Amino acid sequence: MSGTYPSRTAQTELGGVSVAPTDRSVQASEGVTYQQVQTAQTSATTSLKTQLSSIEDVDTAQMAIDVTTANTAYQAALQTSATVRQLSLLDFLR
Asked: Is 48 left (phi over 0), alpha (psi -120 to 50) or beta?
């Protein structure tokens, strides 16, 4: 037995009989789904705002010091490796 149901309702076949959920049950499940989506969106928005704030609120002076320190350490490592490559085993053992 089949009938015409609104397009938003789901039909289920049970023992050869089509059964459609009531409009209220569909509305209730859509309401729950809407609430879940709304909650997920609010959570994602809050998370993104927090991440953006942590990026934008960086202390510029401290960041400049950190970058300079990292660059100095990098240059020292390059210089050390260049010096070590020039040494022979005998120079190293002296």
From this structure: alpha
Instruction: For the chain, report the end-to-end CA distance as a whole number of angstroms.
Output: 99
Give buried/exposed letters for 73-86 (b at 16+ CB in 10 A, else e): eeeeeeeeeeeeee
Which two structure tokens, joined as six digits, stand for 8? 């938003």
- Give residue-wise pLDDT tens across range 28-50: 666 667 788 888 899 999 999 98
Q: Distance between CA atoms of 19 and 10, rounded to whole angstroms?
A: 9
Of residues 4 and 24, the one with the higher pLDDT is: 24
Provide the phi-psi class of 24: left if phi over 0, else alpha when psi is between -120 and 50, else beta: alpha
Beta bridge partners of 13: 18
3-state DSSP call for residue 58? coil
pTM of the entire predicted model:
0.39
